[in-house]
């Protein structure tokens, strides 16, 4: 048995009892109010989901298992995945065991590459990644065991097994998508001496003489790992998983949501916005130029990508971490300087638009400029990097949900007519 499985097997009975007793004792207590505005406003603020892997208080930003993000920025993704699943940071031996398990389950099957090769050459890399995961569904341990008649208490075990397999193939799949989609030459074989993030960087095949790009990617993969349960990708994955569709179906579905421009795709749009402003003003714009460009964007009825958030009401601590990285490693880069200048200007512009609840930069405002600096210039690929990381959050949430026996998700919907009658009676 792997150390992670062993650890979870020790934790799960206590977790189940805690939830069972909580519901038994307080099951009828009210914890959230729902207004008409909330219903028509994308359910913003409705507390209707459980997520134990992470939380996002509006005034603090991401907290993973009670640890503030700023205290996790030096960790490697394997440590984060362990933390998400168990609530504890792993020991060195536990990290090594997880890494050995990931390497043991690596290897993208040939048929996946054949399917991707058969797709139109200009397919979006997110569509290629999602397809790659989905076509591997036939491997699902969960589906196999479910078909054989597995007990509900055991659901989490094959969910964990599928999660390890998905995480194990993701760097190779995502690296292969990059090389195939952008004509970068043959796929690069995994190097089993490297950790998960470094191996991904190795399989992308970009030059990285001093290892700074690898450092950026480690940070990137750590920062994007999870963001509580209500965002589109996590919620979609969770909802699909609650029907006991296996993790291949659920993660692929979640990633399809991440591919939306208001969600994960914002990172590709963001860099486009920064480069557009630089093009218009022939280099790093002045603060005045930037301010005008932001107003022009708004007046054209468009959003300023990389700013605003459905939950946060402060500068996203993930943006802070990228900004600190840029200041340390590429302070003289004009794209980075434009991003930095945007931070000084854009919030003041957005603050003047009454309807905008959060004028501050989110995670996507800072990452693109850094990736661009290190030679990863295919914007459309940026959401794939996000996906490789976010798979950790989605999968850990699935494992935890199956562990405590969460039922199928089924909120009640009502027609407008019914709501009208309800509020006017
Ligand atoms: N630029 C212009 N208008 C904005 C805005 C921005 N950056 N942020 C919000 N608004 C607008 C909304 O479009 C909305 O307008 P309408 O009522 O006319 O539709 C209004 O302000 C109220 O929105 P809100 O309550 O402040 O924000 P929402 O919770 O509805 O939306 C979004 C949150 C992140 C989708 C939004 O801020 C946005 O579109 N930002 C730009 C895109 C972006 O950066 N997305 C990435 C978010 C991080 C993420 O999930 N990454 O995966």
**CATH level-3 fold name of the largest domain:** Citrate Synthase, domain 1
Measured as a percent range, the helix fraction is 55-70%
Looking at the structure, what is the overall shape?
globular
Low-confidence stretches: none
Structural class: mainly alpha
Q: Gyration radius, to the nearest Å?
A: 22 Å
* Total beta strand runs: 3
CATH architecture of the largest domain: Orthogonal Bundle
- The name of the CATH superfamily of the largest domain reads Citrate Synthase, domain 1
- The strand line-up of the biggest sheet is 1-2-3
From N to C, what is the helix and strand string?
HHEEEHHHHHHHHHHHHHHHHH
- N-to-C span: 60 Å
Notes on the structure:
- This protein is mostly helical.
- The chain has two domains: 194 residues, Citrate Synthase, domain 1, CATH 1.10.580; 108 residues, Cytochrome P450-Terp, domain 2 (Cytochrome p450-Terp, domain 2), CATH 1.10.230.
- Helices cover 59% and strands 1% of the residues.
- It contains 19 helices and three strands.
- Helix 7 packs antiparallel against helix 8 and helix 14 crosses helix 16.
- The radius of gyration is 22 Å and the shape is globular.
- 46% of the residues are buried.
- Bound molecules: N-hydroxyamidocarboxymethyldethia coenzyme *A (HAX).
- N-hydroxyamidocarboxymethyldethia coenzyme *A binds next to loops.
